Amino acid sequence: MNNMYEYEESLYKQGYNYIGGCDEAGRGPLVGPVVCACVVFPKGYHNDLINDSKKLTEKKREALYDIIIKDSLSYGISIISAKEIDEINILEASRKGMIEAYKKANKKIKIDYLLTDAMKISTLNIPVLDIIKGDAKSVSIAAASILAKVTRDRILYDLDKKYPEYDFKSHKGYPTKKHLELLEKYGVFDEYRKSYKPVKNLIDRGIIR
To answer: Averaged over 9-15, what is the pLDDT?
Structure first.
């Protein structure tokens, strides 16, 4: 399926009216939270500018963030901290975040079907379909990917202001060569994910801020 509306249109034909799309941003970075979002659009909603957040420029994501919030029937954003990621692991943190984001969106409008980006969720009382590369195949999931990514990037820009020497604004916490060099130089601080191997190795060597 390469049509961004195919899943939603198929579900509308089956009688579902309020379809949520869930995605997360930030599973790979060494620092900061994982952010999850859920978006519900009006039936038949189309916006061909909405795409997988990874395929959009930062400027386009920022513009679409406001459009998605304005056009959606409901949305939810959940932030799961590095501390909690360390406690329950990144997969479970992402799953928990998606469930929380769904619950926030569900307060305003009763979602009757949930689409996720490759995340199995079996604890909800509605049908859930996990779609591999869902953010490139469903407008609802793609919109959630944009809300999650923009929210997480803003958190990293705040962290960059607090710790400018780590250059978070350029690498967003991902384990780039430059980030690893800076981390080795300045040490691990609280917002780092201490269960992630490059961070754990530095803690074991006593390289702590």
So the answer is: 97
User: Can you tell me which residue has the tokens 């769904």?
Assistant: 102
Confidence of residue 60 (pLDDT cuts 50, 70, 90): very high
Residues 167 and 116 in one domain: no
User: For residues 104 and 177, what is the distance between their CA atoms, to the nearest angstrom?
Assistant: 37
* Sequence-distant (≥ 6) Cβ neighbours of residue 130 within 8 angstroms: 116, 117, 118, 119, 120, 121
Please name the helix (run of DSSP H) or strand (run of DSSP E) that holds residue 168, with its range, or none.
Answer: helix 168-171
2: confidence class by pLDDT, cuts 50, 70, 90 = low
Domain ranges, residue 193: 163-204
Grouping H, G, I as helix, E, B as strand and the rest as coil, residue 100 is helix
Domain total of the chain: 2
Tell me, what CATH number does 115's domain have? 3.30.420.10
User: Do residue 77 and residue 170 come from a single domain?
Assistant: no
**Alpha carbon 66 to chain centroid, angstroms:** 16
Q: Tokens at residue 69, please?
A: 């919030």
**Buried (b) or exposed (e) across 65-84, using 16+ Cβ within 10 A?**
beebeebbbbbbbbbbebeb
138 and 4 Cβ atoms separated by less than 8 Å? yes
Q: Tell me, yes or no, whether 109 lies in a domain.
A: yes
Which candidate, 107, 135, 116, 111, places its Cα nearest to that of 43? 111
